């Protein structure tokens, strides 16, 4: 039997043993928002040659996160969440992407933008500073410029009192909240209160708390 589209087939996610990847974070949050049972396989970097070859052969791109659903292998985090949203769709499963076409397009725009931009901020405030140890070093000029762009865009997407960029929470909110937490979690003052509240609300979701619970504590 071809298990590619069989929703009862056990899911496997190859993740990040260092718990530093924002894209593994995205994939895990997506799986847990859908309340799916899956097996997590943490992968150390650099990826072992044998696994790298398997990922390249089966999923085309030898990276993590990598989702395995039966005989179907897939990498790239936004592709994974879109696949999950279609395979495990409402009403049987929670909604992962907005129902409205324009809101869904906006969510996809935000996810794409956050994967291809803000490199100065991502360098100054890496995910380790959000998930593990905050940093106190000042933002570089590029980091400051990126922070200003992030706050401007987030401010246009999230009105005071809102907890999502769409009518209800969606997976793009996980990515945008993580981007904002690069500033909030490190004590940077550039973030308006309503955006702090928005990011902190996502940080309190069960799916996010489950991801954070995997991270080893440091003294």
Tell me what you see in this structure.
The chain has 219 residues and is α+β, with helices and mostly antiparallel strands. The protein has 2 domains: 11-87, Glutaredoxin (3-Layer(aba) Sandwich); 101-205, Glutathione S-transferase Yfyf (Class Pi), Chain A, domain 2 (Up-down Bundle), CATH 1.20.1050.10. The protein is 51% helix and 9% strand. The protein is built from 10 helices and 4 strands, in the order βαβαββαααααααα. It has helices at 22-33, 49-59, 77-87, 101-116, 119-124, 127-131, 141-157, 171-184, 193-203, 206-213, and strands at residues 11-16, 38-43, 66-69, 72-75. Strands 2-1-3-4 form a 4-stranded mixed β-sheet. A hairpin with a 2-residue loop joins strand 3 (66-69) and strand 4 (72-75). Helix 1 packs across helix 10, helix 4 (101-116) crosses helix 8 and helix 8 (171-184) crosses helix 9 (193-203). The longest helix is centred in the last third of the chain and has 17 residues, at 141-157.
Give short descriptive properties of this protein:
219 residues, alpha+beta, Glutaredoxin, Glutathione S-transferase Yfyf (Class Pi), Chain A, domain 2, 2 domains, 4-stranded mixed β-sheet, 10 helices, 51% helix
Shape: globular
Q: What is the arithmetic mean of pLDDT?
A: 95
Q: Characterize the main sheet.
A: 4 strands, mixed
Distance between the termini: 50 Å
- Count of distinct strands: 4
What Rg is obtained from the alpha carbons, in whole angstroms? 17 Å
Please report the first level of CATH classification, the CATH class of the largest domain.
Mainly Alpha
Per the CATH scheme, the topology name of the largest domain is: Glutathione S-transferase Yfyf (Class Pi), Chain A, domain 2
What's the structural domain tally? 2
The chain-level structural class is alpha+beta
Show unreliable segments.
Answer: none
Percent helix, as a range, is 40-55%
Number of discrete helical segments:
10
Proper CATH architecture of the largest domain: Up-down Bundle
Order of helices and strands: EHEHEEHHHHHHHH
Assess the beta-strand content as a share of residues.
5-15%
Strand order of the largest sheet: 2-1-3-4
């Amino acid at each position: 039997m071809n298990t590619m589209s069989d929703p009862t087939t056990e899911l496997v996610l190859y993740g990040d043993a260092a718990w530093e990847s924002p894209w593994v974070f995205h994939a895990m949050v997506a799986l847990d928002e859908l309340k799916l049972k899956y097996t997590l396989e943490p992968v150390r970097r650099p990826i072992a040659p044998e696994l790298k070859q398997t990922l390249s052969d089966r999923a085309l791109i030898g990276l993590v996160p990598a989702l395995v659903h039966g005989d179907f292998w897939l990498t790239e985090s936004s592709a994974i969440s879109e696949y999950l949203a279609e395979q495990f769709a409402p009403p049987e499963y929670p909604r992962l992407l907005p129902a409205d076409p324009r809101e869904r397009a906006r969510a996809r725009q935000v996810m794409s933008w956050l994967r291809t931009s803000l490199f100065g901020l991502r360098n100054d405030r890496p995910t380790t500073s959000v998930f593990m140890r905050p940093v106190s070093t000042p933002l570089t000029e590029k980091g400051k410029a990126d922070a200003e762009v992030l706050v401007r865009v987030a401010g246009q997407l999230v009105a005071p009192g809102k907890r999502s960029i769409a009518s209800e929470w969606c997976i793009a909110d996980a990515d945008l909240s993580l981007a904002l937490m690069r500033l909030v979690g490190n004590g940077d003052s550039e973030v308006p209160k309503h955006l702090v509240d928005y990011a902190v609300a996502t940080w309190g979701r069960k799916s996010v708390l489950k991801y954070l619970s995997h991270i080893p504590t440091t003294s």
